[in-house]
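[job 0412] stage=complex_fold ligand=copper (II) ion status=START
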Amino acid sequence: MQTQDAISAGYGGDKPSYLTNGSTLKSWLLTKDHKRIAIMYLISVSVFFFMGGIYAAFIRLELLTPASDLLETATYNKVFTQHGILMIFFFLIPAIPAILGNFLLPLMIGAKDLALPRINLLSLYIYWVGGILTLYALMQGGVDTGWTFYTPYSTTFSNSFVMAVGLGIFINGFSSILTGLNFIVTIHTMRAPGMTWFRLPLFVWAHYATSLVMILGTPVVAITVLLLAIERVTRVGIFDPAIGGDPILFQHLFWFYSHPAVYIMILPGMGVISEVISNFSRKKIFGYEFIAFSSIAIAVFGFLVWGHHMFVSGQSIYAGLVFSFLTMVVAVPSAIKVFNWTATMYKGSISYDTPMLYAIGFLGLFLVGGLTGLFLGSVGLTVHLTDTYFVVAHFHYVMVGGQVIAYLAGIHYWWPKMTGRMYSEFWGKISAMLVFVGFNLTFFPQFILGYQGMPRRYAAYPEEFQVLNIFSTAGASVLGVGLTLPVIYFTHSIIAGKRAGDNPWMLPGLEWRTASPPPTENFEEMPVVTWEAYEFGEENGLDIESARKASGPSVPVQA
Amino acid sequence: MSHDHTEGAHIGIPGYLGVFAILVVGTILTYYVATFDLDFIFAGANTLVALLIAFTKMAFVMLYFMHVRWSGRLIWLSAVASFFWLAIMFAYTMQDYLTRGQGVFSY
Amino acid sequence: MSTHDHEHHAPGLQHQFEDMKQQEESVSIGMWMFLVQEIMFFGGLFTAYLVFRFRYPLAFAEGSNHLDAFWGGLNTLVLIVSSLTMALAVYYAQKGNRNLQVIMIVLTMVFGSVFLGVKVIEYTDKYNSGLVPVTGWNKRTTEADLKGGADKKEKAFAIPFIETRAEAAGGEHDSHAKKPNPHGEFQWNYGSALVDYGLKKEKETGKPFLTESEKIGYFSNGVFDPDKYRDKIRLFYFIYFVMTGLHALHMIVGLGLMAWLLWKAWIGTFSAEYFAPVEMSGLYWHFVDIVWIFLFPLLYLLGRHFIH
Amino acid sequence: MQNSSWIPFFPEQASTFAWQVDLLYFYLIAVSVAFAIPIVAAIFFFIVKYREVEKFATPEEIHGSMVLETVWSIIPFIISMTIFIGGAIVYFNQYTMPKDAMEIYVVGKQWMWKAQHSTGQREINELHVPVGRKIKLTMTTEDVLHDFSIPAFRTKADVVPGRYTYLWFEATKPGRYHLYCAEYCGLNHSGMVGWINVMEQRDFDNWLAGNTSSQTPVEMGKDLFENKLGCASCHAGGANQRGAKLEGIFGKEVKLVGGGSTIVNDDYLRNSILNPAAQVVEGFQPIMPTFKGQVTEEQLNALVAYIKSLTPNAAATTGAPAAPAPMGN
Ligand code: HEA
Ligand code: HEA
Ligand code: CUA
Ligand SMILES: [Cu+2]
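[job 0412] stage=complex_fold status=DONE, emitting structure tokens
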């Protein structure tokens, strides 16, 4: 089919790119092309992110003053619950895997598509159904249980739309399961000739580990939410203490998934960071095998530590000790990664492009987030810290400072590949700075608040906490501006951005060896891989000389 | 990866019938054993026997009906891994219930 | 090799694959990953079962004794037969034998339906004897219904020609305890034989027989409390219904899958080269069978040895 | 206030194991700094030193180093074990219940804390304890999960419906410390706060004997209303309060749910406190708990006196003068 669209095909190709191969709504909604599905995910996930962000803005505004004056407690409770639910289940979990992973996995391993394209499309539809159901429930009145849905409040006491939202999360879970399933199959069976396991980009390894967690963990939260829903409808169930049930069992089942899920929320980010650090230092990654296996180790050991969310819940105190011990063990693979990333930059040729700025930000923020995770894993200390703002600060450092920043790094990094156009470097850097500063200003004070004892999920708090809360709210405004900028310059880039060329950064990865944006079948010819991962020399078929001429003295800055 | 299920007919009709017979015998056996009180061996012996039979039956279904015997390493691995993960869930949940309020921490 | 203009695909080869082998391998790994997912899904329920069985063993045994092991056992056999026919369906598909393939799929569906039919009988029985754990979901009976006795029997929601064991045993088994149930609440009219047994054992051996949780869970101020005991049995029935209910739901999905497969097989889609859908549906069917292989002893047989 | 410590924004240490928790905290901060500073320094050094000088240069390859990998796996592991052991020791101290402790029963309830001393005294959202004595709390809840949390003592524990959980501490300094509910429990979770009053043993004995102070009835009522009984958590005034407005009601007529109305007088007030569900004011939910058995006659009188004082010239608007409060002096 010959579609002559306004956007011309990518450079070098005489065939339409995936973007121009059909422009009807149907050609998008019924596509099996992983790249189009990724773009649709990008749009949907962004919507959820901004909704979650607006809730965050309301949280911060309410906490500007000690009394619950802007929002009444009832509203506040719904606001933070919905903030957590949207951000975790509908933004952060799908963010990197379903957008960047979907788009890049086949490209990186030299495949025409994911192994099961129809399942991929199905997972998008499931995500939409789950999302729309949740949004509908939020509009009907929302939920106020906290994103953790602890029983018996959620089963018997809450008057909000627990069922509907639970159902939304249940459905959405299957989207995540199917994505993970698809990735595992694809990585096993779809690698191009010569693409051995140890030539895979670390992004792929990270997604492999993530997919394991998705498959092994997500069904458990599905059944848990289902049991909760049944109990809510029938008014009888295994979590009901009145008949001998155990509310703490809910916590076990919930965290069996939700702790590993925090690794769903960081491993893909770590994959992105491995790519960015190595590629923008033009340096082979230090300790490839260690980074690859530490991802798997995190995924596996991550299943053994869920009880660290329940140190004061009334679980056995011995269980607390065991879980604390294992929590310490699982921190080691993360440490290995951090050290290897740092070592990679040694003797590199480091450029300061926006993705790299984000990646460096990630290193610092994940360090703080991870180290404070150790505070929380140290059981005697957590008795004091749990359910305070220390926890809130910890998880925002790893989730926002970690995964969201990695996600931004990745979006900037692969933007030219996805759209064929450059974004504005100048504004990219400004926004990276604003996000970094705003983020720290928002969440660092919360560590101090937490140690002082300010409990989380409080609409009103004692006056002595106000000063630090004002800092936090101020920071959130800066952060909000920093996060709004990309929307503007990315939109501008789609309309009027400079053409990027196929390989603007002269990188060796397979994804850079096809047109930008890539054609529907990804590669003109089935690639044959003869080089190791992260080798930057000319001998690997990179035409560096002419690229240098074409790119001019430095990266063009345009406003 | 060696994955050769296209070769078809692994154990033939007699083989399938044989497995079927084992499963039926297992079912009858598990029912029959359950009516005896085996607690004199040790508490919970009945449950253990029932589970052993169930596991045996499962093994036959998986190996022959589901062709795991002729499948690649990855299939074996995923079968084993899923039980391993179940074991994690059981073991670490139960370590809470089994040790509540005991020892130096008893109240 | 450039493949996009490769028009001579093998039947059923999808565009993203190079050859049939790659496709089959992908589909099979995908299916197994799906099964792993299913195992974890049921795993959550088995954990719940484990926890509460560990806490209230006697209540669970007592509850289990009022499930009908005959029907449960029969259903196990039925499922095993259907597993056999399913395996044979795959076998004949591999052989490219359309007719036998179709017959085997039909047989599988028949046995699957028999299984569900038996479940209906069992559920009905529970409904009639007030053993559904949800208030209001049991048969509502009044004083008058009970007094009416035998002639009122047809008023019970009964399946024609089939008498469940509890009904057959009805008179001697539970006449002493039948209480009216005007609101359809969960009932337990069968006493507490096992707790008595346990207490007797404790006296004889001097060793604790009841668990700590049981001592709290069945007694109020040291006196046996039938209401508290009933609640623990209710917990068992809750788990029973959720587990078997979800299993039955999987059976229904399986039957849908079979119907689709039947149609495909009927029009002759499958051949010795291309039969992956049959094989994959088979994997699913066997998985559902395996779940039942565990449900049967855990739910129906536990505590059976106390009867004698 | 809590910030009276020598470090700004640092909570007061007021229990025997507070210093242990703080020590662990500082140890962890030290570990964090010890790791963060070199890593961040290295990053900055590298990005400056090895910044791009030529576009698309291909620096020499370094594959990795087994020695380094081993070192930086083992060192963090050892350090993390010290953290674990430190945490375990502190945890042991926090959660081994002392045998010789004074026992207090605590019941959580949406959204208040009820405490009962072994001598029978009851308190709401307040807990009076003597300094230097081991106190063990035996806790449960009537409805959902709550969490009894005292930051100044560095301890907390969830309370779980259907069973007991336990907490102990030994306060080291007299004072007034925040008590929070730290497990989300619904609507008024953030209002489920109170105070721990640590007193010298002598004051505590006096307090137990009911000889709190020589306040006037109105002062005493105000204290009860705002602090001791937590009335103010619902009747604090403002637009969003859940309880009825009490200012200026005395002597007025109020409309009741189910039709009818009544004049607010002493008896009505008293009845509203002891048996709130009997006469529910129009426009409100019958959520006010009964205080029967929790307030002494004397306190009841003080409360009535205080509520009356919220209406200027209350005595003038009603014929009946307030019952003289039998204050002990
Ligand atoms: C992306 C998400 C993410 C990630 C990656 C992590 C990572 C970690 N988390 Fe976090 N966590 C959350 C998200 C995340 N967490 C969320 C959402 C909650 C709250 C949920 C709720 O209640 O609502 C939470 C809560 C939480 C708790 C419970 C707190 C409480 O409620 O009481 C604990 C306790 O142990 C904990 C620990 C850890 C640890 C040890 C790690 C480790 O994996 C971190 C490892 C990283 C490092 C250690 C840094 C790098 C290492 C070095 C620089 C070398 C030095 C290292 C050593 C000396 C070992 N987290
Ligand atoms: C992916 C996960 C994720 C992300 C990205 C965020 C992002 C943010 N979160 Fe969130 N948060 C959670 C997950 C996340 N959070 C979870 C799980 C909880 C626990 C819930 C619970 O207890 O149940 C929580 C709870 C939580 C609390 C504690 C509430 C409480 O316990 O009472 C606070 C308080 O400050 C907070 C703040 C923020 C802020 C300021 C951001 C910012 O980073 C957001 C920045 C984004 C935007 C601001 C949107 C983009 C910009 C615009 C739309 C422009 C307009 C806006 C402005 C100009 C301000 N969050
Ligand atoms: Cu009670 Cu929060
Ligand atoms: Cu965790």
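The domain at 217-317 of chain D is CATH 1.10.760.10 (Cytochrome Bc1 Complex; Chain D, domain 2).
[job 0412] exit 0
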